[in-house]
């Protein structure tokens, strides 16, 4: 009793201490960062008001950030899922995306250019010949079928790649410590990245034609949507709101079809994944495995099958994200997946490892941060370091991410 | 693939049974590598200077990677800290050294001025800066799970690399001193460690007796037909090997000190170490900072003879190289790390290139086709030579692929590496000595306690 007494005495004491001051002390970093964010927001409004920052630039940065963020979120889902279900940080994730995109685009080239150039040259994306992107003219508007086939096939190809990687590299390591698997995934990253260099040569290449962008802006103060910048200035618009702000004519934002495609496909896939994970037995099994694998297996969940589906879902979404990013940018190099990997990690960490919403929100936050930070940064080189810095601070201050938990879905 | 495992097991038992000490083991392996490269050199028709230069290069790279490997071994092998930011700490060491030693008023207008400090001061500053960076990143990060530490250090090294490549930091002025990183085009290392060697040969540091000594050495080298340039290179490599020996000795002392034993206790079970009253966070931070300082040192001597360092040197690839060195050798074993460096440099990094040149030299290999599709096309037509030529042309990429495969195979088949199974005695008295049978028992026991 004597030993038990202080414990029971301590209980109410602990509760009474969780007061405002305690909350403040526990969340000092969060409060500081919210304050810092508010400060940046005020400064943003200020520069908008005094004209040092044009509204069109801000809108372009936000739109770009949103696109990058959605793509990062989509690519992050796979990383997040393998991290929570298989328990290791997959460093090869970015290079898997690159590998899928290279093979997938090769197939798209084959479909569109069949008969116009040797097969090998098409599959190798023009290596060894003088094939250029403008010859094939791949864009959503010019070749919609090729683009849609590309999306589907790249998803399937990337899923195939990760399945074979799992079969030969990761499955034998199921019982190894997560750090040894991480080291093996570094090996996989090297293997994939330099196989691409070996086959496709290291040069950056143009693959798609960037379509003409729709212009959003004002004509004599009336908000309008026109087919192009030129059309807007010539007062040709297909949508015109009946009220005016001020009286000037300006283009605020240009959006092209590939950007819209990326946004639409990403949102559709995310909704689909949400339903899959929340409503199906597979989703429930995944969540069970993320929580406690041994328990899940003892309850009769076929863990190997769940793992296979994890790879398939993660791989195909990653592949599709890669294809859409390349389509939107128009160019691709063997490093693009690796360069995105740390940003994807940042997004996943920010949102909380294992959480799909977390990956999406984290992606959008990271995307917006890398673009909006350009307002203050002296040069674009620092945009990525800012994202990594946020990632490091989140890991140190709130390792569970903004939404916490290891729950898929 | 089981044959590879068999060979490794054989090598392991040999290593275990060998009566020779660690030093003779390393010397023996190096001699075997030298024989291999002399054979390469002979078939390539190298003259004496070429042969010596090739051996010198192998030794130099081995020493440098062994140094970096020893640092990582302190992190990963001794303390269990998963550092993937190696390239970043190396970059800090080299850049701080370069900025500190660059002349205040450079002769050419395009060169970036620095602080104009003497070379030894610059080296110390570089090491201290890398160690400080390690300390700063480790204090908050060491609380994290090991794989989070990996992500943090990876992000950190990318932040460092991108910052050094930025044009904002290309040249800046603090407190009246103008300095800079040189941006994307790199930093001229006007006062690097090899400058010490060159000064010794040119002026003997301005001290007459030393000057006559250096002249005597050059004459001695000349008398056996070795050129002055090669003599300078060999001397620099000797200097680096000497530093490696010092570092090795330091790690050995450190590993057998109470500090080192506590680090190993942390690696095995941090909770228990803490329960025994050890301030594990402080010890981990110390270990991390010392290792980062050593990484800086290794990088300074590595880049110290090139005259220029660029941000692209410090990509993730460099980090992976050092990891491969430690993993081949066996985590936790200093001797294994040095052996790993020797094998990595001679067989994985330089070897394939020499082998290619030997084959190119002795067989008629046609011009490489422009794409692998053409190469496969001729292979289908019964002519494998274009494919061989293509492989030779793209050997650099293929080497990285091989590195990836090696990494995967080691993790899958021999995660303990060549010498990681070995229990390096933690006590100054070898308690295992009187009963050799129980030593093998403890070896297998250790293998299962991961």
Quick synopsis:
The complex is a heterodimer of chains A (409) and B (450). Chain A is mainly alpha-helical. Chain A contains 17 helices and 6 strands.
Order of strands, main sheet of chain B, comes to: 1-2
Q: What's the total number of strands of chain A?
A: 6
Q: What would you call the shape of chain A?
A: globular
Query: Major beta sheet of chain A, specifics?
Result: 4 strands, antiparallel
Element pattern of chain B in H and E: HHHHHHEEEHHHHHHEHHHHHH
Spatial extent as radius of gyration of chain B? 24 Å
Q: Going across the biggest sheet of chain A, name each strand in turn.
A: 4-3-2-5
- Give the class of chain A from helix and strand content and strand pairing: mainly alpha
Order of helices and strands of chain A: HHHHHHHHHEEEHEEHHHHEHHH
Helix content of chain B: over 70%
Search tags:
heterodimer; A: 409 residues; mainly alpha; 6 strands; 6% strand; disordered N terminus; B: 450 residues; two-stranded antiparallel sheet; 4 strands; 71% helix
Structure description:
- The complex is a heterodimer of chains A (409) and B (450).
- In chain A, α4 runs parallel beside α11 and α11 runs antiparallel to α14.
- The two termini of chain A are 46 Å apart.
- Chain A has 409 residues and is mainly alpha-helical.
- Chain A has a four-stranded antiparallel β-sheet with strand order 4-3-2-5. In chain A, strands 1-6 form a two-stranded antiparallel ribbon.
- In chain A, 67% of the residues lie in helices and 6% in strands.
- Chain A is globular and about 70 Å long.
- By secondary structure, chain B is an all-alpha fold.
- In chain B, the strands form two sheets. In chain B, strands 1-2 form a two-stranded antiparallel sheet. In chain B, strands 3-4 form a two-stranded antiparallel ribbon.
- In chain B, α4 packs parallel to α6 and α4 crosses α12.
- Chains A and B meet through α6, α9, α15 and α17 of A and α6, α13, α15 and α17 of B.
């Amino acid at each position: 009793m004597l030993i038990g007494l202080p414990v029971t005495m301590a209980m109410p004491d602990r509760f009474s201490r969780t007061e405002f001051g305690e909350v403040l002390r526990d969340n000092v970093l969060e409060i500081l960062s919210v304050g810092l964010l508010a400060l940046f927001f005020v400064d943003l409004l200020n520069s908008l008001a005094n004209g040092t920052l044009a509204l069109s630039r801000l809108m372009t940065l936000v739109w770009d950030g949103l696109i990058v963020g959605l793509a990062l979120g989509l690519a992050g889902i796979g990383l997040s899922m393998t991290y929570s279900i298989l328990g290791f940080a997959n460093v090869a994730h970015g290079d898997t995306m690159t590998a899928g995109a290279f093979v997938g685009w090769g197939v798209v080239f084959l479909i569109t250019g069949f008969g116009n150039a040797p097969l090998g040259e098409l599959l190798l994306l023009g290596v060894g010949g003088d094939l250029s992107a403008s010859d094939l003219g791949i864009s959503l508007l010019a070749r919609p079928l090729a683009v849609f086939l590309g999306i589907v096939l790249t998803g399937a190809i990337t899923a195939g790649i990760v399945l074979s990687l799992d079969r030969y590299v990761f499955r034998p390591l199921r019982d190894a410590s997560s750090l040894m698997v991480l080291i093996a995934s570094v090996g996989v990253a090297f293997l994939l990245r330099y196989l691409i260099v070996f086959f496709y040569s290291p040069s950056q290449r143009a693959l798609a034609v960037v379509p003409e962008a729709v212009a959003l802006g004002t004509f004599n103060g009336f908000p309008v949507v026109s087919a192009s910048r030129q059309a807007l200035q010539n007062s040709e618009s297909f949508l015109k709101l009946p009220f005016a702000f001020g009286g000037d004519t300006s283009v605020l934002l240009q959006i092209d079809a590939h950007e819209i495609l990326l946004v639409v496909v990403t949102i559709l896939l995310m909704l689909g994944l949400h339903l899959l994970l929340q409503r199906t037995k597979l989703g429930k099994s995944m969540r069970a495995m993320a929580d406690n694998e041994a328990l899940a297996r003892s309850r009769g969940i076929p863990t190997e099958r769940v793992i296979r589906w994890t790879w398939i879902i993660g791989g195909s979404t990653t592949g599709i994200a890669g294809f859409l990013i390349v389509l939107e940018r128009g160019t691709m190099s063997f490093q693009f997946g690796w360069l995105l990997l740390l940003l994807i990690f940042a997004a996943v960490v920010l949102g909380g490892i294992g959480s799909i919403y977390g990956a999406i929100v984290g992606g959008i936050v990271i995307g917006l941060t890398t673009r909006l930070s350009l307002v203050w940064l002296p040069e674009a080189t620092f945009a990525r370091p800012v994202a990594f810095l946020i990632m490091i601070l989140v890991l140190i201050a709130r390792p569970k991410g903004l939404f916490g938990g290891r729950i898929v879905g | 693939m089981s044959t590879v495992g068999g060979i490794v097991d054989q090598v392991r038992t040999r290593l275990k049974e060998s009566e020779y000490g660690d030093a003779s083991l390393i010397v023996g392996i190096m001699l075997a590598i030298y024989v291999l490269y002399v054979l390469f050199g002979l078939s390539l028709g190298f003259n004496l200077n070429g042969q010596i230069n090739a051996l010198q290069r192998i030794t130099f790279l081995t020493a440098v990677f062994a140094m970096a490997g020893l640092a990582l071994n302190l992190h990963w092998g001794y303390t269990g800290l998963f550092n993937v930011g190696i390239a970043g700490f190396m970059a800090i060491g080299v850049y701080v050294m370069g900025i500190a030693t660059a002349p205040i008023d450079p002769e050419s207008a395009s060169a970036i001025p620095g602080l104009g400090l003497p070379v030894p001061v610059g080296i110390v500053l570089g090491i201290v800066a890398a160690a400080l960076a390690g300390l700063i990143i480790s204090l908050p990060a060491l609380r994290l799970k090991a794989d989070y530490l990996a992500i943090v250090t990876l992000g950190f090294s990318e932040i460092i690399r991108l910052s050094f490549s930025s044009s904002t930091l290309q040249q800046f002025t603090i407190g009246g001193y103008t300095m800079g990183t040189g941006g994307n085009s790199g930093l001229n290392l006007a006062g690097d460690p090899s400058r010490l060697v060159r000064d010794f040969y040119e002026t003997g540091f301005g001290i007459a007796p030393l000057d006559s000594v250096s002249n005597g050495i050059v004459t001695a080298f000349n008398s056996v037909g070795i050129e002055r340039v090669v003599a300078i290179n060999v001397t620099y490599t000797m200097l680096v090997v000497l530093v490696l020996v010092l570092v090795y000795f330091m790690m050995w002392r450190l590993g057998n000190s109470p500090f080192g034993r506590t680090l190993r206790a942390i690696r095995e079970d941090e909770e228990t170490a803490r329960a025994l009253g050890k301030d594990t966070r402080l010890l981990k931070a110390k270990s991390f900072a010392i290792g980062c300082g050593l990484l800086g040192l290794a990088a300074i001597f590595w880049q110290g003879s090139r005259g220029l360092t660029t941000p692209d040197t410090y990509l993730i690839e460099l980090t992976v190289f050092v990891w491969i060195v430690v993993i081949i050798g066996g985590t936790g074993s200093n001797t294994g790390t040095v052996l790993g460096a020797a094998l990595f440099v001679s067989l994985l990094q330089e070897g394939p290139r020499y082998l290619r040149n030997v084959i190119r030299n002795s067989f008629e290999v046609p011009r490489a086709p422009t794409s692998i599709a053409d190469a496969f096309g001729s292979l289908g037509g019964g002519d494998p030579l274009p494919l061989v030529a293509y492989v030779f042309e793209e050997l650099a990429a293929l080497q990285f692929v091989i590195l990836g495969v090696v990494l995967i195979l080691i993790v899958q088949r021999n995660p303990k590496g060549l010498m990681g199974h070995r229990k390096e005695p933690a006590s100054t008295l070898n308690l295992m000595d009187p009963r050799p049978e129980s030593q093998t028992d403890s070896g297998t026991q250790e293998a299962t306690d991961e």
